[in-house]
Amino acid sequence: MKLCLDVGNSHIYGGVYQSGRALLTFRKASKQGSSSDEYGLFFRSVLRENGIDPNQVTKIALCSVVPEAIYAISAACQKYFDIPPFILQAGVKTGLKIQYRNPLEVGADRIANAIAGADLFPGENLIIVDLGTATTLCAIGKDRSYRGGVILPGLKMSMQALESGTSKLGSVEITRKDTCLGRTTATSIQSGLYFGHLGALQEIISRVQLEEFDGQRPKVIATGGFAALFDETDLFDQVVQDLVLHGLLAVLEMNATKQVI
Known about the structure:
By secondary structure, this protein is an alpha/beta fold.
């Protein structure tokens, strides 16, 4: 069995795979300063509670946009699973042609998404939209070229900016809206968050389509915690919630012969 872990700013998203099939996916809220023991005990507990023997895990893959968490989680993997994790970072084989001016700037989660997209939809131009703490869009060519990306504040981050930057606007539930005009302060904020994000995504996808794909629509794949909010629009061709985990599984196999340090 293989354990894949995506460590983000807000959540740790994990999955257990056997023969390429997901047996379990789980989320845990990220907590700054968590110890290796906290992580290790949680990982073993969540596996046991879902009927999976932690001792059956033979490989672990990890990607993170939170550098300070990498050491603690790596230590947890070694202490509680006796496995040094494979870490998706600069220098590992990805199968992508990264066209960033500085490839080191591309977040590991975005690389994992791109690997998964290229594997799941071979020979197709792609835009991958990840709706998490930040919302990111990445353009992937049919030749597995990582063309570049766009980053904007995520829905929750936008709401928190309104709450912290104003005197009278509080937090609201982030939800799908059917009508644009709000009749209360709360519904007005919800509408602004939802339709503002929808409009931004529509404009960015349209511009990337013109700039990178000669006006031909690529396949648009969505992932991330807020992707389901937009699954009834015509914005995305497909939602793949565990895309980043697919990417980690693929890159783990791609680098299977390399020595993990």
